[in-house]
Amino acid sequence: MSAVAGPDGRLRCPWGATDDELYRDYHDTEWGQPLHGRNELYERLCLEAFQSGLAWITILRKRESFRSAFAGFDPERVARFGTADVERLMNDASIVRNRLKIDAAVNNARVIVELNDTDLDTLLWSFAPEPRPGRLTESSDVPASTSESKALAKELKRRGLRFVGPTTAYALMQATGMVDDHLSGCCVQVTNTDSDSRYRGR
């Protein structure tokens, strides 16, 4: 399916051409826009992992609750979570109560704060591919994973991060602007396209 008209008549990716304002605003203002910063990227890493097996709109509707439950997605604070915190999260009906995903979020925070040869921002963006010469035309053309997302997932696993397979890694790349998967004709323009070579080259 190609770009379609949303409720305001503007062409969007099919999933963003919705009456749900929260979903549409996410498509229009966040998805695919280059994102940097340790806390910001850790948040997206966590949310993409929690989304696995669920609809993304479910995660969006719980996003503020996730932020509150996970200390604003500050890895330094989440890394100090203990058994009592995990039980608190497991009893919090405002988030997704999946022990494996909660444990992964805490574990990943600990790995991130202990990185000593790089930082999360540089690590993730070093796997960003060169921009495509043009946007894809059909939703069916958008891959579920790529060689870059497979390499990123492999490196994150090597470093001890959990719940970040190639598909989740690619979803992270899409969400944070490492790739632009808005379809041809979509009204959204990616701003501040990151061409800084220090984020590429693997």
How would you explain this protein's 3D organization?
- With 202 residues, this protein is mainly alpha-helical.
- It is built from ten helices and two strands; from the N terminus they run ββαααααααααα.
- The chain has a two-stranded antiparallel sheet.
- Strand 1 (4-5) and strand 2 form a beta hairpin.
- Helix 2 (38-51) crosses helix 10 and helix 9 (147-158) packs across helix 10 (166-175).
- It is globular, with a radius of gyration of 17 Å.
* DSSP strand count: 2
Radius of gyration: 17 Å
The helix/strand order is: EEHHHHHHHHHH
Overall pLDDT confidence: 94
Topology:
Elements: E1 4-5, E2 11-12, H1 21-29, H2 38-51, H3 56-61, H4 63-69, H5 75-78, H6 83-90, H7 99-113, H8 120-125, H9 147-158, H10 166-175
Antiparallel strand pairs: 1-2
Spell out the key features of this protein:
single chain, 202 residues, mainly alpha, Endonuclease III, domain 1, 2 domains, two-stranded antiparallel ribbon, 2 strands, disordered C terminus
Short description, anyone?
The protein has 202 residues and is mainly α. It has helices spanning 21-29, 38-51, 56-61, 63-69, 75-78, 83-90, 99-113, 120-125, 147-158, 166-175; strands spanning 4-5, 11-12. It is built from ten helices and two strands, in the order E-E-H-H-H-H-H-H-H-H-H-H.
